[in-house]
Amino acid sequence: MITLKGENIYLRALEPEDLEFIHSIENDETIWEISNTQTPYSKFLIKQYLEHAHKDIFEVKQLRLVISSYDEIALGMIDLFDFDFKNSRAGVGILVKEPNDRLKGFGSEALKLLIDYSFTHLGLRQLYCNISEENAASVKLFSNQGFVEVGLKKDWNRVNGSYENEYLFQLINN
Predict the structure, then answer these.
(1) Looking at the chain, which runs of residues are DSSP E strands?
(2) pTM higher than the cut 0.85
């Protein structure tokens, strides 16, 4: 049986009521580096995105889920992106929005649920993620879930006028 429910959190589909939450994430300049965002998003554009969020991962090549507490508080988002059915792989991105909600195991639990779902339900063979060399918390999160560093992309991302390296991590389901 496929479940997206963990001990402390569950993963759920996007809802129209998530407009304000997503708008606050997409327009938070402190996390633009993580999401590779360059400009703010309007509520109009996010509303249009939410209207199409029901589309199948096979069609749009992305699955975005809300990390939610059992008392219905949206804690963050977790994504599968660049879904590649032919090669049986996808990228993973995760964000726990509020700093005081981080390092409490929510991200780890969400990532484990998404990995299980990806391998058992979607039939993927591998997942990958890109992590800034400076992001020790994400390196630890993904490493603890079995992802292995397979490369370092030199001077990959321009951040505040200088270039930073980025790791490529991979998890293969054998």
Answers:
(1) 9-13, 63-69, 74-84, 89-96, 126-132, 148-159, 162-172
(2) yes
